[in-house]
Design brief:
Blueprint lengths: L3 E4 L3 H12 L7 E4 L3 H11 L2 E2 L2 H7 L2 E4 L3 H11 L8 E4 L6 H5 L8 E5 L9 E7 L5 H11 L3 E5 L5 H9 L1 H18 L4 H22 L3 H8 L5 H11 L2 H22 L1
Parallel strand pairs: 1-2, 1-4, 2-3, 4-5, 5-6, 7-8
Antiparallel strand pairs: 6-7
Helix pairs in contact: 7-12, 8-9
């Protein structure tokens, strides 16, 4: 089985490691690098994997998953770039950074695959978008899919769409959490105990998501099925529209997309 090294042991790096292990990836085939020795020791003890330095990761791994902050990627590639053989697969989870950023700092012909996943990987319900760089083949994309399918669903997209993916699904869980938080507060305002409001909204969110996924129906049809003439739901929807909720979401996702582009420009 492929040896994978995760370079960068933050939240997303740990998500990748734990997901691979849950999927049956042998701990002996996983390496991790961490800037702080205490963090490296923590991950070794928690998962039974081996923490190594960057040079060892480059030498021993077949796949290098780079999961550092975008602003730290340049320094990392300056350190390891000259040591990386051109046939080694690089998987980037650095939000906003295009594959061209890596191609300019790696040996000519090095395959790079760009990946954007999200935090529901913790419960194996992630949405992961995968894009090929100039030298990445279908086999390289298949390796990335093998790594991320255990964390949830995967989809292949052109790299030109990755900033939109970052805005929509990469940051998406935060939007849903904010909506659920607001609905729980509304339940309290209407006289419900906090725990009751929490249970009502969380299960409603889960059920609605499953219906969206499994019914094959457009969300408009599912919404209309709940919206009776002159009923409670249409009264609520009118208020949401009056307060510009739809327009606010459009503007918010555009802002997230633009910020992803700014990060790439500043790198």
């Amino acid at each position: 089985m492929t040896v994978v090294a995760v370079l960068g042991a933050g939240k997303i790096g740990e998500l990748v490691l734990s997901g691979l292990l849950r999927a049956g990836w042998p701990a002996a085939k996983l390496l991790v690098t961490a800037r702080r020795p205490a963090r490296a020791k923590e991950l070794q003890e928690r998962y039974g994997i081996r923490a190594v330095d960057n040079a060892t990761a480059v030498a021993e791994a077949d796949v290098l998953a780079i999961v550092v902050k975008p602003q730290d990627a340049d320094a990392l590639l300056a350190e390891i770039g000259p040591k990386i053989p051109a046939d080694k697969l690089i998987i980037s989870l650095c939000a906003g950074l295009p594959t061209g950023f890596f191609a300019a700092r790696l040996p000519e012909g090095t395959p790079v695959v760009r990946v954007m996943t999200n935090t529901p990987a913790l419960v194996d319900e992630a949405m992961t978008a995968i894009s090929a760089g100039p030298h990445a083949t279908g086999e390289h994309l298949a390796v990335a899919e093998e790594m991320f399918k255990p964390l949830g669903a995967t989809i292949r997209v052109p790299e030109s769409q990755q900033d939109a993916v970052t805005a929509l699904s990469g940051s998406g869980p935060a939007y849903f959490y904010l909506l659920v938080e607001a609905m729980i507060d509304a339940g309290i305002l209407l006289g419900l105990p906090r725990q009751v409001a929490h249970e009502l909204i969380v299960q409603t969110a889960i059920g609605s998501a499953v219906m969206l996924r499994d019914s094959g129906e457009h969300p408009v049809k599912l919404r209309e099925a709940v919206t009776s003439p002159a009923g409670t739901t249409i009264s609520a929807i009118r208020e949401l529209e009056n307060h510009g909720v739809r327009a606010a979401l459009l503007a918010a996702l555009e802002a997230a997309r633009d910020r992803a582009r700014e990060i790439a420009a500043q790198a």
